[in-house]
Amino acid sequence: MKTSHALIAAGTALVALAGMAHAQEGISALKGHNSHAPIDLSADHAEAQDRADRAIFSGNVVVKQDNLTLRTARMTLAYANNNGLDINRIDASGGVLITSPSETAKGDFAVYDLDKGLITMVGNVRLDRGGSFLSGGRLTLDLNTGRAVMDGGLRGVNQNGGGRVTGRFTVPPKKS
After folding, report:
1. Cα gap 141→126, rounded to integer Å
2. CA–CA dist 105, 75 (Å, integer)
3. Residues 99-155: tens digit of each pLDDT
4. Taking Cα atoms as reference points, which of 53, 61, 58 lies closest to residue 89?
5. What is the DSSP letter of 165?
6. What does residue 27 show for φ and ψ, rounded to 5 degrees?
7. Residue 121 in 3-state DSSP?
8. Within the chain, where are the H helices?
9. Is the N end or the C end of the chain the one with fewer CB atoms within 10 Å?
10. What DSSP designation does 10 have?
């Protein structure tokens, strides 16, 4: 009996998350994001490691791509050197904040796979939109579809949720 209630609650949370990501105040900026748009970045320190095909940025790192902004303390950028830099992955750590015109996601770590258009955030994750939020241990954002999947992570690792997804959703007032 408890399992079926947990499944219903989890299903309800995912439906609410989907609604949160698409229904409030316009279309989610996550859906259809161009992960091949140019990337602008700034940091206090940069180190190129050409033999390893990566660059490491630290200190007030800000990365902008189209209408998404990523802020973090440290970032490793992996690339292929094909007559220029072909960036394929960004690893961010030290507190990560990702913002779009309509969403904000926070977490301890993030991996942005540019080839697949996926952002995975882990550790004390929170997704906010229009007064509603979900918190959990891991969030996967599919930039192609706008789909967001949150799970609670391991018990004891996500101190705020204890291995569960938690949230609060605003309910708009009924029009008379």
Report:
1. 12
2. 17
3. 998 889 999 999 999 999 999 999 999 999 988 999 999 999 998 888 889 998 765
4. 53
5. -
6. -85, 145
7. strand
8. 2-22
9. C
10. H
Residue 147: count other Cβ atoms within 10 Å of its Cβ.
Answer: 17
Burial (CB count within 10 angstroms: exposed 0-12, middle 13-18, buried 19+), residue 16: middle
Please, which residues have CB within 8 angstroms of residue 119's CB and are 6 or more apart in sequence? 98, 105, 110, 111, 112, 113, 140, 141, 143
What is this structure's pTM? 0.78
Q: What is the pLDDT of residues 10-49, one digit of tens each?
A: 333 444 444 444 433 334 556 778 888 999 999 999 999 9
Beta strands in 36-113 (DSSP E): 39-42, 45-49, 54-65, 68-81, 85-99, 104-113
